Each structure stands twice: as C-alpha cells, then as structure tokens.
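Figure 2 data, in text form.
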Amino acid sequence: MTEFNILGDSTNWQKDFERRLRTSYTAAGLGAAAAERMLDERSAGIGDWTVAEITDAGTRVGYVAVVVADDSGTLAGRIGDLRVDGPHTDRGHEQAARDWAEGWCAERGALRLDIRLTEPAGELFDGYRVRGQLRTRHVSSPPEPVDGVTARPMTQAEYPEWLVSEKVAYVGDIVRAGALSPEEAVRKSDRDFAKLIPEGLATPDNTFLVLEAVGEQIGTGWLKHGFLPGVTYGYSLHIQERHRGKGYGRAAMVAGEQATLAGGDSALMFTVWGGNEVAMNLYTSVGYQVVEESRSIGLPRSAT
C-alpha cells in the first residue's frame, strides 16, 4: 500500500532533485552555466515546498513535493517533483502520488494544479492540459540561408505596428493555452512588454528582424541575447498567415539561429504555447529538444 510521510528534513531529497534537474537540462543541450540558472529559477521558493516520502510497506520508493501559492489572484498548486525510484515503478505508486498531490492542493483551496515535466511521464499526466513547451537547440555553425529569404533590422517606422500585433498574438497564445482569461492575458501582455523592451528598438541585447521574400515582408523576429549564459531566447519568429505553408517557418528559424551567433550565443531557445501543434512539429523537425513541458488541470479534478 502506498503511503505518504511529510519530511521534516528534506535535504537528501533536495540534493537528488537538483542532481536530476542538472542532468536533464544538460541532456537537452544547455551548457553548465545555463543549466545552473535554470535550476535556480526552477527551485525558487523551494523552502516553502512540502515534501513527502512515498513508502510501500515501510520502504521508501520515491518523493513527491507540492506547494500552493497565489498566482495573479488565484490559488494554484504545483507539483514541484514526483519521483518513483526505478525498481518500484509501474506498481501504481506514481498514480497514488499524483492523486495525493491533487488532494493535498485542493484541500488548501487551489483551483488549478501545475507541473513542469523535464522527462517523459508516460500516461501519468495525460489528463493535464499542455500549457507550453520550452525548447532549445545548440547552434554550432552558421546555418545555410534559405534561398530567396532575407532578414534585415526592423526600422523605427515599422516598430509601432509590430508591437501592437505582437501584443495581440501574445494574448491569443496565452488564452488558447488556457493559462489566463482574455482580460488577465491583456494585463500580462502589457506588463511583460513594458518590462522586456522598455526602450523599444533601442533596448540593449535585443534583435528585431524583418523577414522578406518575393519583394515583400513575410514575417518578423524578436530575440533576446544572453537570456541565459550562452543562450538567446526567441520571443517571436512570426510568419504572416498568408505566407504560411511555403517553407518560410524554417527560414525564420535560420534567421533566428544566425542572429543567435551574431549576438555571441551558441544556443537558441523558444517557448511554444499549448495548442500550437504546427509550431511544435516544426521545432521537432529541425532538432529543437524539449527542455520542459508545462501542464495543468483544474481542481478539484471531479469539476473538470
């Protein structure tokens, strides 16, 4: 029978948790410094987590860690870790730990439960909606440009219209993924853009691109260099809808990788919002690995 014992001292669990995360991040292609930064972000507030030892007939078989906190006015739970040791897998302990975490968070008023997966979890979280994926790829040499497609710096005259369209697209991505309501998404969009590019085109360490082909604009790009040590983050590589299905998505990725190298980094990272299977398939086809996948479910589960 699976049982759960809250730990007073979670030092051993934390050491194992951090070791597993480092291994996962480096396996996805991140350098040591970038992996350490990811680990710091992932484990922020870890002292507030409740860690339970999963046992079976008195033998420890794994750990589960949970926390409930306010998220923009809504109480949200999070499974920070759920790990069953190899010899004890596929005996129902994983499902029992997931159910325990859902109940623990629901009892404390959480209306949603989130988890970030760094390795395949089989069918365990199939009922959880995919909110987004963080993907990355190491860029070792300049990619071959796509014939007929060029990338140039965005002009000041083009920036205002681009900013409006990017905010609208960002709100749409958030809502489609089910992360926030439309009103909350608009507020988040305004806050995020004001924080990320306070000086517009002049914001340091940012690259803004216009992609052109057949004599007209086909898309845009926005990248942040040094997002993590050696990593450029692609906030947006967008192909206009009327130009999609023509192979320009790959051209946009090439432009992003060229800008990554020009910015002094060696890896390009993206977030793909849930529900955007076309982008997920594109990134998979060109070698972008999943670093983390975010999923969530409404609580209590009987209400979903």
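Caption note: The first helix runs from residue 11 to 27.
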